[in-house]
Design brief:
Layout (H helix, E strand, L loop, with lengths): L4 E6 L7 H13 L8 E4 L2 H6 L3 E3 L5 H6 L18 H17 L2 E8 L1 H16 L5 E6 L15 H22 L6 E6 L6 H5 L13 E3 L7 H15 L2 E6 L10 H4 L13 H12 L4 E4 L9 E3 L16
Helix pairs in contact: 4-5
């Protein structure tokens, strides 16, 4: 009897290392021909499974698979297609099992983040209910570093380095012009509910006075008055201020600043709003020019606002190095 087959798929936003994970899965599976037959890959994640668009990786040489370790992007295509609950979306889950049964797939490896892990778990439940033996395994992938039972998630290290380098390079630009131009620079980073990426910006500094001067975490409630006071203090001490803010920062009431932004439609949460809103506050409450950037969101934004001198609070902001 031939060995059963394995199906691998990529999901969510791709990282700098997702193809390295793909290479690891394929290379390892090839070492056990008695237990694993074909190693298939789905085109565009779970969507490819539903459409039965499968790629036979066995047609690729060992050298080609090894090259995935250093290849950017998602080699097999990824997707943002979240399956709903079993009650709401049972037909899709059953379709996946149908495709697996048709190709004698007994191993399903889904390379993604929290939503992908949830899909993998639900698929395992459906397979068990339908009496089909299917080993469902989540392959961790997220830049946010927020997966349960995962200490350092593949993808986070690359982003941590990128954010630290971006923070340092941009701050050097601001420092060079701070005497007569921008004095406050706000860098928004991803991470949603976890502050790992924001914290990584702290690697940019090596001594007191190095940027970032303020880091705003989603785990720490935001206080506008304390924030503005800390910005004013940093500008007074160092001549400029670099702020790194996580996209998931909330106020004391638990509302995302992005959701509370008055310029945003009430039904829409714009995750790039922090990089625009904080610079506006600084510019309107302090006599200084302010710049905001979002270098690793889907669309970057670069705002420079003229100073509007008004009063500032004397409270100190919550911030960490």
């Amino acid at each position: 009897m031939p060995a059963p087959n394995l199906l691998y798929a990529q999901s969510g936003g791709v990282t700098a290392t997702i193809n390295a994970s793909a290479a690891a899965v394929i290379e390892t599976a090839r070492k056990f021909p008695a237990r694993i037959g074909q190693v298939l890959a789905s085109r565009n994640g779970i969507i490819g499974v539903l459409r039965e668009e499968l790629i036979d990786t066995g047609l690729e040489s060992a050298e080609a698979i090894r090259g995935l370790r250093y290849s950017p992007g998602g080699a097999f295509g990824s997707c943002r297609f979240k399956l709903k609950s079993l009650d709401q979306d049972r037909a899709h889950y059953e379709r996946v099992i149908e495709v697996c049964r048709a190709h004698d797939i007994r191993y399903f490896l889904y390379n993604g983040g929290n939503d992908s892990a949830d899909t993998t778990h639900k698929l395992s439940q459906v397979a068990q209910t339908l009496g089909y033996e299917l080993h469902c395994i989540g392959v961790p992938k997220t830049i946010d570093n927020d997966l349960a039972l995962t200490d350092v998630c593949p993808g986070f290290g690359s982003v941590a380095k990128y954010v630290a380098v971006s923070t340092r390079e941009a701050s050097l630009d601001v420092l060079s012009m701070a005497e007569s131009s921008t004095k406050v620079f706000v860098l928004e980073v991803m991470g949603r509910h976890a502050g790992w990426i924001a914290a990584a910006a702290g690697l940019a500094g090596s001594k007191d006075g190095d940027p970032p001067h303020i880091i705003l975490f989603p785990e720490v409630p935001f206080d506008q008055a304390r924030f503005l006071a800390a910005v004013k203090d940093a500008v007074g001490r160092f001549g400029y201020c670099t702020v790194v803010v996580s996209e998931g920062v909330k106020d004391a009431k638990g509302r995302f600043l992005a959701e509370a932004a008055p310029e945003m439609p009430s039904a829409m949460c714009n995750w790039a709003a922090q990089g625009r809103r904080l610079p506006r506050w600084c510019a309107r409450r302090m006599a200084t020019n302010t710049t905001g950037r979002c270098p690793i969101t889907c669309s970057a934004r670069h705002d420079t606002l003229p100073a509007r001198p008004t009063s500032t609070s004397a409270c100190r902001s919550e911030w960490r190095r």
